[in-house]
Specification:
By secondary structure, the protein is an alpha+beta fold. It contains seven helices and 14 strands. The strands form four sheets. Strands 1, 2, 5, 6, 7, 13 and 14 form a seven-stranded antiparallel beta sheet that branches.
């Protein structure tokens, strides 16, 4: 998404997912004796105003963030985290996420990630060795006796589930586009200070067209459990007001 003063994102190379600088596969031999400290500081997520959402997250995320769809391919659903480019309103100066607000799975999986590796058909579990969380200690080992610890097994299960949920979300977004239900939109906001913001380059569902869907399509979407996701998106539009309040508090 774009804002009048800049482009969303954190200035990274387009070749890498946001936040990740040096992701590499885990290796039982090379990672022997390495531990991964828990994430307690979300400062790494401060520089983006949107993150990818999996289908299972819509119902929780809608209470805290507007859920919108990207205009460019590949079209995906994202949670809007801020009104200005390169700014996340939910991470404080101390690196803490706003208490009580849902933390998207994309952020919770860090520093782990699934990535494609040359010559391999399956995705490989990787971690960002630039995260600053790797240490030579016995506190939270990655491997013991050459086998993955519970920490790594949990990360693998989490990343696998997130990957599946992003595919489920992508299928919905593709169908929304196929049915002609996605329309360009922009958020124009004037703060009490007089400052004006315009967030653009995203799409939303045309509610009137959605309500006019043919019965057979509607029933098919109900069978696929897509209807709650569309309703969650529509209801999430009320969360723009929360972003405006957070932005106003900065002034």
């Amino acid at each position: 998404m774009q804002q009048t003063s800049g482009t969303a994102g954190n200035g990274q190379s387009a070749a890498l997912p946001i936040f990740y600088r040096r992701p590499r596969p885990l290796d039982a031999a090379g990672d022997r004796g390495l531990s991964l400290q828990p994430v307690t500081n979300f400062g790494f997520a401060r520089g983006t105003n949107s993150v990818l959402l999996g289908a299972a997250e819509y119902l929780r995320a809608m209470r805290h963030y507007p859920i919108v769809f990207t205009s460019r391919e590949p079209r995906v659903a994202v949670a809007v985290l801020g009104l200005e480019g390169n700014e996340n309103l939910f991470v404080g100066e101390d690196g803490r996420w706003r208490e009580g607000d849902y933390i998207p799975a994309y952020i919770r999986r860090y520093p782990f990630i699934f990535l494609e590796q040359p010559g391999k058909a399956e995705l490989t579990l990787c971690l960002d060795e630039a995260s600053g969380l790797l240490t030579q200690s016995d506190d939270h080992l990655l491997f013991e006796g050459g086998e993955p610890t519970q920490l790594v097994r949990n990360a693998l299960a989490f990343c696998r589930e997130f990957h599946e949920q992003t595919l489920a979300s992508a299928a919905l977004v593709a169908e929304l586009a196929q049915q002609g239900l996605l329309i360009p939109n922009e958020a124009r906001i004037r703060l009490n200070s007089g400052k004006e913001l315009t967030l653009r380059d995203f799409q939303i569902v045309d509610e009137a067209k959605f309500n006019a869907l043919a019965d057979d399509v509607f029933l098919d979407w109900r069978r696929r459990r897509w209807l709650p996701l569309v309703y969650a998106h529509l209801m999430s539009m009320a969360s723009w007001a929360g972003l405006v309040e957070l932005e106003a508090k900065k002034q």
